[in-house]
Amino acid sequence: MIENDKTVALLVAAGQGNRAGGDTPKQFRLVAGKAVLAHAYDALASHGAIDAIHIVLGAGQEGTARKLLGDRGASFIKGADSRRGSVRAGLESIAATDGAARVLIHDAARPFLPSAVIDRLLGALDEAEGAIPVLPVADTLVRGMDGRMADGVPRDALFRVQTPQAFRFDTIIAAHRSWDITREATDDAQILRAAGHDVIMVDGDEGLEKLTYPQDFARVEARLAPTMTVRVGMGYDVHRLAADEELWLGGVLVPHDRGLAGHSDADVALHAIVDALLGALAEGDIGSHFPPSDAQWRGASSDRFLAYAGDRVAARSGRIDHIDLTIICEAPKIGPHRDAMRTRIASILAVPIDRISVKATTTERLGFAGRREGIAAQAVATLSLPALS
User: Fold this and answer.
1) What distance in Å separates the CA atoms of residue 276 and residue 235, rounded to the nearest whole number?
2) What pTM value is reported for the model?
3) Which of 42, 40, 34, 163 is nearest to 105 (CA)?
4) What confidence tens digit (pLDDT) does each residue in 112-143 have?
5) Which of 37, 158, 310, 363 has CA 20 to 30 A from 78's CA?
6) Whole-number Å distance between alpha carbons of 381 and 389
7) Which residues of the chain have pLDDT under 70?
């Protein structure tokens, strides 16, 4: 191991966060227009004593993380099936590269990290091999038995443990290596104590709350909501049906005897959503960003256009609250493909699927759509943007 005086942070973000609800892992969900992972990363990066930040992710998650973090310069490490295993993988990766003198191990699900907590943790490492932030237990505690209250539990010596937890690097990696892997640990401080080392407790912070359940996200959004303003945009697109073309709708290849003709893949559904998002931002339309006269967009997949529009929202620190899409055609039937379209659109925009609505209607055989000459789509996008943007 390379000896140095570096302080590094290991940001653990490999979980699925199933208790938070929705199809998007909680570390990738947006809070006040910014991913939980980005909030946590920025809190660590803003502290001058931290030299590098390494993020532990689950399999297949790196692409989403890179998109949400942009050019922040994070390094990524593949995690394991358990939190303990993911931390071990992160520590081993650091040891195999630059090494470190101190490490802060932090859960991405605690995104609002005050700098003062980091100061207290690093200061405590002058006295011990590990330190954790804690809060006293304020509520009355009781045991329960068969749904009934049993004896009370004295709370004087009880504390709520938070992260980040700070350790001397050589000591914590040695403790992880000696841990009995048939057991799971609730946190890294437990692993350090099992190796015979003391762990100092420092004051935590009420703002360092863990986002676990849907109500946790609702509470944080409500707290931050006064700084946001609502924007609504509308988009509309139409393309003609032609032989020998694939039919792409809502990012899904739909079996049909004809497809839509256009400069790109002519996905009217995604084009309408792009225009709705750009309209809510007051940033023009799809043609102004991807002009048909530019040969590089010939045959391009429209998910690139939608991802770009989503990035434009993120660049303004905005949040996509809802997309309402209506596809207008006589054929094919949209119903069998609706859920696949919702899933694909939600994935491209990195939002929960319950924020995406896909509907279809006909024109009662009137007009070009009624004559099956083309397909149209209209979309409404609702965004939240910082009030001063």
Assistant:
1) 4
2) 0.60
3) 163
4) 999 999 999 999 999 999 999 999 998 898 99
5) 310
6) 18
7) 1-3, 16-23, 225-227, 388-389
